[in-house]
Design goal:
Elements (H helix, E strand, L loop, with lengths): L4 E7 L6 H13 L5 E7 L6 H11 L3 E6 L5 H11 L4 E4 L11 H11 L3 E8 L5 H18 L7 E8 H9 L7 H8 L3 E7 L12 H15 L2 H30 L6 H34 L6 E4 L19 E2 L19 E2 L14
Parallel strand pairs: 1-2, 1-4, 2-3, 5-7
Antiparallel strand pairs: 3-8, 4-6, 5-6, 9-10
Helix pairs in contact: 5-8, 9-10
GO molecular function, one term: glycosyltransferase activity
InterPro entries: Glyco_trans_2-like, Glycosyltransferase_2, Nucleotide-diphossugar_trans
Protein name: Putative glucosyltransferase
């Protein structure tokens, strides 16, 4: 039976917290009186997470395991779960239990009663986070709001409920390096919010290092605003005007017979202009890099396994030639008799080489 609710849970090396997640999430899902599925996306874990998921799936029929071939990142793992989900409503929930699963029922009720497409989980109490994280998060949302004009709910991360129409719209976007916490508000679908208290991580350690947070921030800015490009233009103009003033001063001083400082002022001017130029080049490079990545059209992830598509006792769906089935970049079956769609790349599951058999083609 097609589920009415899908709960997408990205995971990366979550063996410590996984049993605790099941203890809290399963009673909540069972008590919703709604047909559901749990889409656990294993983002290339290197610990015992895949083994634990298989064991839990034997006792929890609604648990669906989707495993990516390699670690693709948090946002890509969520995107993979959205692409594979089947529910009329889809909730994205991290596995660390900082966002309480008990709020899912309230989100679902609001979506149904008020007819909204998106219900954001908003962290009203973040006392469990460090002061640095709270301040940097508020500054981050403030900068995005000012640069892009996008009114994303403050303190709303990736804990949200979306209607099927919203999920289909997100899946249809060709954007690479998407940041879903800003992509979803940018769609402009009717929405509401639910407040909750952010909890301590139940077990394990956070996978979001400072470097990854900086990368997410940079992707957010360059993905939703051209303000840095305009800033580069203005910096270039200001630098040019400053250079003209310095040249005019030097010329006037020369005719008046005034002496000017030697190498100190020269080095200062050169250094200042060089800094402005390098900053402008760096900003332009970020946008050129995003354009380059989009032109390459490389998939953000590859699905290696989906328990929904594997027959009981089997290892992988069979292809027409008796080998593993061909799949597209999102793990779905590739179109018969032709190439995959332009936004996906056909890949072939791992298969031992066959002597005397030519390659299957590009």
């Amino acid at each position: 039976m097609r589920p009415q609710l899908s709960i997408v849970v990205p995971m990366f090396n979550e063996e410590a917290v996984l049993p605790l997640l099941v203890q809290r999430l399963r009673p909540v899902a069972d008590g919703l009186d709604t047909a559901y599925e749990i889409v656990a996306v294993d983002d290339g874990s290197r610990d015992a997470t895949p083994v634990l998921l298989q064991r839990i799936a034997r006792e929890w029929p609604q648990l669906r395991v989707v495993r990516l071939r390699a670690n693709a990142g948090h946002q890509a793992a969520i995107s993979a779960g959205l692409a594979r989900s089947r529910g009329d409503y889809v909730v994205t929930l991290d596995a660390d239990l900082q966002d309480p699963p008990e709020v899912v029922g309230q989100m679902l009720r609001i979506a149904r009663e008020e007819g909204v497409d998106v219900v954001y989980g908003v962290r009203e109490d973040r006392s469990t986070d460090t002061a640095f994280k709270r301040l940097s998060a508020r500054a981050f949302y403030g900068v995005i709001r000012r640069l892009s004009g996008l009114h994303a709910p403050t303190d709303a991360g990736d804990y949200r409920l979306m209607s099927r129409a919203t999920v289909d719209a997100v899946n249809a976007l060709p954007e690479h390096g998407r940041v879903l916490r800003f992509v979803v508000p940018a769609l402009g679908f009717p929405s509401d919010t639910v407040g909750y208290t952010r909890e301590q991580r139940a077990a394990g350690r956070s996978k979001y290092s400072l470097g990854r947070m900086m990368r997410l921030s940079l992707d957010s800015v360059t993905g939703f605003s051209i303000a840095p490009l305009r800033a580069a233009t203005w910096l270039g103009l200001v630098g040019g005007l400053a250079a003209l003033v310095v040249v005019a001063y030097a010329v006037v001083s020369r005719f008046l017979g005034m002496t000017t400082p030697g190498w100190t002022s020269t080095v200062a001017v050169v250094a200042g202009m060089g800094a402005v130029q390098l900053l402008c080049l760096g900003i332009l490079g970020e946008y050129v890099g995003r354009t380059y990545a989009a032109l390459q059209a490389r998939p953000a992830y590859f699905v290696a396994y989906d328990s929904l598509e594997v027959p009981d006792g089997g290892t992988a769906p069979a292809g027409a030639d008796g080998g593993p089935a061909r799949t597209d970049a999102r793990g779905g079956p590739a179109p018969a008799g032709g190439r995959a769609p332009s936004q996906t790349t056909e890949v072939r599951a791992d298969e031992p080489a066959r002597a005397g058999t030519p390659p299957a083609g590009p």
